[in-house]
Amino acid sequence: MAQATADQLGFADLDLEPEILRALSELGYEEPTPIQAEAIPNLLAGRDLLGQAATGTGKTAAFALPIIQRIPRGGRGTDPAALVLVPTRELAMQVSEAVHRYGAELGVRVLPVYGGQPIGHQLRALGRGVDVVVATPGRALDHIARGTLRLDALQTVVLDEADEMLDMGFSEDIDSILENAPAERQTVLFSATMPSRIDALARRHLSDPVRVRIEREEPPPGEAPRVREGAYMVTRAQKAAALGRVLDVEAPEAAIVFCRTREQVDQLSETLNGRGYRAEALHGGLSQEQRDRVMGRLRSGTAELLVATDVAARGLDVEHLTHVVNYDVPSAPESYVHRIGRVGRAGREGVAITLAEPREHRMLKAIERATRRKIPLEKVPTVADLRTRRLELTRASLEESLIEGADLDRFRVVVESLAEEYDLFDVALAAVKLVHEAGGTAYDEEDIPDARIPDRDRSQREPGQDRGPRKRRETGRPGAGPGAGTTRLFVGAGRGSGIRPQDLVGAIAGESGLSGRDIGAIEIADRFSLVEVPTDAAEDVIRALRGATIKGRRLNIRLDRDR
Ligand code: AMP
Q1: Which CATH number fits domain 227-381: 3.40.50.300, 3.30.70.3040, 3.30.390.30, 3.40.366.10?
Q2: How large is the angle between the packed helices 383-404 and 239-250, nearest 10 degrees?
Q3: Which residues approach ligand 1 with their CB closer than 6 A?
Q4: Which of 260, 264, 360, when mutated, tests ligand 1's pocket best, judged by the most ligand atoms within 8 Å of its CB?
Q5: Which of 19, 123, 312, 370 stands 20 to 30 A from 467 (CA)?
Q6: pLDDT level of residue 436 (50, 70, 90 thresholds)
Q7: CATH number, domain 486-559, options 3.30.70.330, 3.30.1390.20, 3.40.50.1460, 3.40.50.670
Q8: What's the predicted TM-score (pTM) here?
């Protein structure tokens, strides 16, 4: 149902203003996700909304775009028109960044407000006036009590990841905040799960809400595709490298790699080409003629990988497609089913691979529930796995050429003359070595760790799925398992300052004496980064790095606390 709507509607059909449409087009969003297609018109019409949606569905834009559009233009007051409540500081920052990006052209003023940050900065910013406040409930209440966050002008309140907020004990804070908000406001609640406590919360604070949920879509019985499915949990920073590893082991004949945006399509196909794959980009920005050329290259085997957005790949039928790769977890189970339906046809086995970031694991679970199939979490191939696999491939191609037999005679003279001087077996070894080295794709010599699902989500996982995260800690530090034994540090500089994972590893290893292998998952956001280090070394790392510089910037580093 939701899928049908999404298929028909483009962003332009949603009555969004030109400034917002331009921002979306610049971000490379080609069409609304199902939750956006359903939510945006209702929210623009002023309805309350109860949405079941996890991270990865596009829910942030689903509530942020209507908020931005509904902010009164001209003669703005100092009090916010919208308040978004979120469970953690990370989400507060992420949502603020999203609102800022979508509303940049309209000059929307947004402020993240969370505990752990000096309150002075927040006081000054609130005093200057903001349109949208994105806050953790505790800190929001502090500001309300101080009179620095006034709710009188609120048009919309969003409860984002409401189930998480209840799990973290924010229920009473949320109640008090909403009791202070104007009665005629619009209230929006998003939650990944809908336990009865969420229903009760919705009954207390929402009035006649539209309910939005991505409907389950089950494949007709007997038509389940013969597809081997698997997922890899990796951090964003490691994704391209992990994809390379997986492709090397899988050695697809022809594969489609799905990305969310045009920019990702362009970037990833460039990266893959740089790593020696023959990848072609396919997205909505190409003319029909360019599209035909790309498809021709894939059909003829000149290209082996097609990197595409959903829209661009629509209607595309490649006969010999062996693999579908989701570079991100798709934004709805329907989209997953649709994508992987492109392989496993006509009795052939197909492979569907999904790269998931830790924060997307709930979406993966939603897909498992909808398809009623488990998607096993695989371990990213190690350097040793790759070597083994490459040897297998070399062996297979030698065997193929022996079976074909043709055209070998002209090399006889080489072998015969070498055999006079050397052992025939050694001659064969040297020849295999040359073939092997000529055929391989270059790969990095470092193993890529599997990423860890955030601690606060761990209780939701099933025991069989613990494989990846535990394995990644096999770094010669006994007892340094995930959760226990590691601590996350917040570094106040991110992609915007040109920070890359290797810079952080370099600085930490250089200043603190930890080795690169002790450093765990690294996440780089626009304005900050998060790094995992062994708990017993955390204080030392902070001390060592205070005063250090990366890219000429002094580092602001501290323990990462959500509140
Ligand atoms: P969310 O579920 O809100 O956390 O969004 C997940 C990711 O999807 C974010 O990186 C967004 O930038 C991206 N995204 C949201 N809407 C769209 C869209 N319509 N097309 C492509 N990407 C999107």
Answers
A1: 3.40.50.300
A2: 30
A3: 29, 32-33, 36, 55-61, 260-261
A4: 260
A5: 370
A6: confident
A7: 3.30.70.330
A8: 0.56
